[in-house]
Amino acid sequence: MLCRQFTTSAARAATKKNNLFNALFKQKRPRPRIPQTEDEIMAPLPPNTAKAAFSGTPPRPANKRPPKMVEVTRKQGLRGLLSSIFKTDQSSHRTAQRFRQEKLSNIGLNQVKFLNTDSITNILYWYTVDMKFNQSDFQRLLPDKNLRVGSYDPQFDTIDIEVHRARNPVNLTRWMGYFLTFKSKDAAMVYYQETLGAELCGMPLKLRFVEPSIRGYTSPLLDKAPGVSRHSHALILGLPVGYSETTILRVLWDYDLIDDDKLAVQRVPVDRVKYGGSPFVLRFKSEEEADRFVKDYNQQIFPYTSSRVLCEVVD
């Protein structure tokens, strides 16, 4: 009898010890929140906080019962989900229908107010990476006259654009960006407005108006030979140091260069060119001859050299 009573007492003690161990170590305690404001710091502690700290159980907030678990069947949950989706969809349709019934006003930019600003010119600039674009690429971005946002004078049904690359005025090497030149400020404004948010080869077309005096728009080298267009100029990069203009004239004897030998082949300053000797500017009598020269010698080993050269038309 005494042995049985001792065994029962030992079992009760072990059970109590296990319960205490589980309460202290196996129970997930919530992390105490650190007071942030002065009111939270000075607020009195909840009752039984000290007692709970020694007992190992988190204190229960005063006058707050644990929330009751509401059982929701699968049918009720699906019904509630469909109801919420229907209400949201119905609200969005109502908003869209109200927007369609409103009168459209102030379509497009105010042309008079827009043109009176000082920053409006007939030149637009687009800063972009070094990619090859031409006039037709920018022309396709302009919507048809029946699909445009604003209403304009019939003279703007077709807009002529002159596109050329930004270039170093010292030696005509490439810079980042393109210039779009229009016949008037009105034409530039129409193109600017109708291409807002457009993309070209995945890149956003962020245009801005610039003055003709901006660096990179033109170069004194393009004005030295009157009557020679911009696209009749070609550029050679990568020739070795010491390669002369006379040697280039001998190599290109079958090309229609201009009659003035000093202007037909002109050495220009190196400036920031990182390879080869000084660049050379070639002036041809026609744009077709400049294109033929580039097709024949671009990325090819130039005569009397052992290196490949880069040739391009000054676009």
UniProtKB/TrEMBL annotation:
UniProt organism field: Wickerhamiella sorbophila
Protein name (database record): Protein PET54
Residue numbers spanned by region Disordered: 39-68
